[in-house]
Amino acid sequence: MSVLEEVDFPGRRAAGCPFDPPPAHRRPATRVTLWDGKPSWMLTDYQDVRAVLADRRFSADTRHPNFPFLQPGQAALRREQPSFLRLDDPEHARLRRILTTDFLIKRVEAMRPGIQQVVDRTLDAMLAHGAPGDLVAEFALPVPSLVICDLLGVPYEDHEFFQRQSTRLLDRNAPVAAVREAFDLLIDYLTELVGRRRPDDPGILARLAAREDLTAAEIANNGLLLLIAGHETTANMTALGTLALLRHPGQAALLRERPELISGAVEELLRYLTIIDSGLPRVALADVELASGVTVREGEAVLLVLGTANRDPELFPGGEQLDVTRDARRHLAFGFGVHQCLGQPLARVELQIALATLLRRVPQLRLAVPFEEVAFRSETLIYGLKSLPVAW
Fold first, then answer.
1. Is-contact 91 71, C-beta < 8 A?
2. What is the rounded CA–CA span in Å between residue 52 and residue 302?
3. For the whole model, what pTM was predicted?
4. Is residue 328 part of a domain?
């Protein structure tokens, strides 16, 4: 394992079944070469991935000189003020704690009626438009965008702007200048928006702007994280989850017969699809020996492959198959440890409502094109669909 291997990283799912992790990610712990020639460990075993995520001897701080970036554009932004996701404690804990109350399970559960209204209105508009339709553009993307805009206090009429810029920001093939421009445009937009917020305005940004212990850069960067994560991840999971159920009609039929299974089904879809398939990056702050026998030395970079970990046969027997009755709660799709996804309660509720509503209200939903013609987003750091033509 000490020999450096030339591995395609990040790999592309399109080489096989588009729901499966890339073939290059299905091997045991391996030393790989990144785009900039730097070496990194690629860890795929569930126990190793979970252990690293829980171990504070592995840093998530992008300012560390050995931090592994997945594209040149990310590296070019190294010197920027990171969001709390890319910081270690105590900085991470300070900023995350300020936002924790907004995503508590109890608070998110209270949002269910409002989210259901958003889902119903959006679906009404798609159905009124008539078949065929694009489930991504007409349903999967508008729903989480509307919800996160309302939560943050961002005008929804600006959604085309921030969706276009976030796509550029996440494109791992984009030129450095394009990534830099997208980042600057989004930060300038949020900084200007925060500057206009009054303490009594609704939304998280107004609340943050009223605090005296946050800098303008901290507010803008953490607002950017919430804005992008709040619509990109849930939108892609909604579209991919719908496609997976269309490809597994028996599973969809079971959910229609037993709608009480939707909560567990969402966990299974999160496990089965794992849209963050480009690896979670970390760098070791000390020598650490892992359960698999690998010793990661201080200063070495690590990429944690969640998609392969979530197919580990010891934790998820038959994990190559979609099974909505499976107990998939131990999946790592939201990460693990102190850096696990802050917005996971909101994502779960949105997915439960969106998928359950589609299954209930449009039981005849079907692909409007052959499966082979569905366009997948394999060039971005978040896996998904460019479009999903459907009929009913």
1. no
2. 9
3. 0.94
4. yes
In b/e form, how buried is each residue of 183-218, taking b as 16+ CB within 10 angstroms?
bebbbebbbebbeebeeeeebbbbbbbeeeebeeeb
Structure tokens at 310: 């979530």
Composition of the chain by helix, strand, coil, percent to 5: 50, 10, 40
State the DSSP string of 110-160: TTHHHHHHHHHHHHHHHHHH-SSEEHIIIIITHHHHHHHHHHHT--GGGHH
pLDDT in tens, 289-347: 999 999 999 999 999 999 999 999 999 999 999 999 999 999 999 999 999 999 999 99
| Alpha carbon distance 214, 157 (integer Å) | 27
Structural domains of the chain, count: 1
Helix or strand holding residue 205 (H, E): helix 204-209
CA atoms within 13 A on the CB side of 158: 16
What CATH number does residue 362 fall under? 1.10.630.10
The domain in which residue 370 lies consists of: 13-391
pLDDT of 374 strictly over 60: yes
pLDDT tens figures, 29-46? 889 888 888 999 999 999
Q: Which pLDDT band, with edges at 50, 70 and 90, does 5 fall under?
A: low
Q: Is residue 24 part of a domain?
A: yes
